[in-house]
Amino acid sequence: MTTLNEIRGHAVPPEAWPARAMPSETRDFTALDYLRFIHPVGSHGVVRIAARVNIGTGRKAKYVFRERRFSVKRIRLGHASVVSALKELSFHTFCTFPYPKPGEPVPEASDANFTSICANWIDLDYYGVQGLAGLSKGDVLDIVQRRCEEKRWPAPSYVMSSGRGMLIVWLYEVAPREILPRWRAVQRTLNREFEDLGHDATGMSPTHLYRYSGSYNPNALAPAFMMWPYYTADVRRGTFDELAAAVMPVSRRKAKLFVAEKLDGIAKRAAKQAGRDRARREEEVAPTTAPAAPARKKRERVGGHLTGRSYWRAIAADIERLRAHRFGGKRMVEDTGRSTMAFAATMVQAWLLPACDLDGWVRDQAHAWGLDEEEALSCTSGVRKAARDAANGERKAWLKKEVDPRYRPGPKRLIELLKVQPAEMGAADLRILVTAERRRDVVADRQATLRRSRGAKARTDQQGARLAIGVEALRLRREQGLDRPAIAARLGVTTRYLDTALRDAKAIETIGTVTAPDKPIKPRRSHGSSRGTSRAKVGNTSGDATVALVAPEGEAYTGDVTVKGTYLPDDARCAPHGPAGVSVPEEVSA
């Protein structure tokens, strides 16, 4: 158990704490070097360090987290108690928690209690993605770097090899907990961009535990270490505002303007509604001599009454359909998101079942998830604890409000958590866990089914019947020479309907018809040319201008030719008499 003096770092005077220089190469980082490097100067509070301890053997085996907490000051100064604890533990948090008060329990490691944070990250389990299992970590790192360049995002600060997977980290100066809404938005954007590389959707919480450099991963039989960059000096640490400005598609200023416009629109609509309500009340009070309007028939309700329980039941049904679609109703196998499926299903059932029945439900579903009962209870322990707290009437403080302590996942969160693909939404017939495009298709199908149940015909049937009438009308026109009114009377339709049917039939008839190519257009003869013309005779000029004369073949023309109104350049001077006998007047030649 961590004592208060150990947390605050006052058990041993600072003079006794050893000083250690930071290694120049990241691969030489020890666990203490790594934590000192992660938490910069200016961080306050305590860091959670934990280890996963296995309890029991065989089918009864399960694991729990054993944790200790040390102040950032104590870690940065490298106290001996921290060094000894790091040898036994393996995980740490990127955030800090408040100091415990004397006589009070240690604050819970929840999102509502952390005080500061210094990183965003992506946990890539690419080895479980089809087509990526054969890639090396260097290849995956190249994909990440290229994608960041294409998106014009800052390059990651460093990359940690955690065993089989990789942890991509963006470090920045310590930021307070007030950035939590923006931090969540940045975290969602980063992870959503790398969904195809097998990102771990459970690592979206700022209090999540990750392995530190120098620890050993027994599942992968490999140590955890910083694989990139090679030199410590190459690790870049910016600010959270810089990262958010580059990653988020909308800046803070635009977001504030959008919220202001949204609130302004809400206020205007509320004012209009208040005016309508006031006018309605005045009409009810004022006497009137006009006859009362007939009561409007109440619209028939379609479907059942929707409540919170029906909403959670629909989500639970979607999760079960998704599991049945992926595994054909059989038991789930390893590396297919068994723990994630159990976690998501239990979060939803916590809103449907009493807290006392939730443990039994998890035990019953453990076989379908491919887990032992103890494993299923272990990976859903937080959800079940929150359900028990809610049953006992406890409330949780969240952003200065008291809320239900149970997890409340939305459709978007569950889609990211379960990595639901658009093709699966239609194949599994999901109703709630769908994208906006799929939701529009579902609504259209539902409306079509409702219209058919009320006697409406399908559009394809109507088009087929209209096309058949159009084909018959064309036959009657060609064989019997009937006009439009006669054809409409023969077929029992209106002329307007007949015109539409003829148009459709003609359009279908022209499909596949080969039209004759257009005849080539002969070039037009030049002005003044004739069959009896000979080659042009060019007269001599005294300047740059050239006068061409065309005369028909035959006897030579010996008379004088006078040209009037001919355009000549200003600098051109024609001879008064050329070889062809051309005489240019003085007013033209001048």
Question: How would you characterize the overall build of this protein?
Answer:
The structure is a single chain. The chain has a 5-stranded antiparallel β-sheet with strand order 4-5-7-6-11, with helices on one face. Helix 10 runs antiparallel to helix 11. Strand 12 and strand 13 form a beta hairpin. The relative contact order is 0.06. The chain is built from 20 helices and 17 strands. The termini are far apart. It folds into 4 domains: 244 residues, no CATH class; 139 residues, no CATH class; 52 residues; 58 residues, no CATH class. It has 590 residues and is an alpha+beta fold.
Short description:
This protein is an alpha+beta fold. The chain has helices at 4-8, 31-38, 72-76, 80-88, 137-151, 180-193, 240-247, 252-285, 308-327, 338-349, 355-369, 373-379, 381-391, 411-418, 422-427, 436-453, 459-480, 484-491, 495-510, 586-589; strands at 46-55, 62-71, 91-92, 95-96, 116-124, 158-161, 166-176, 210-211, 216-217, 222-223, 225-228, 396-398, 401-403, 537-539, 547-549, 561-562, 582-583.
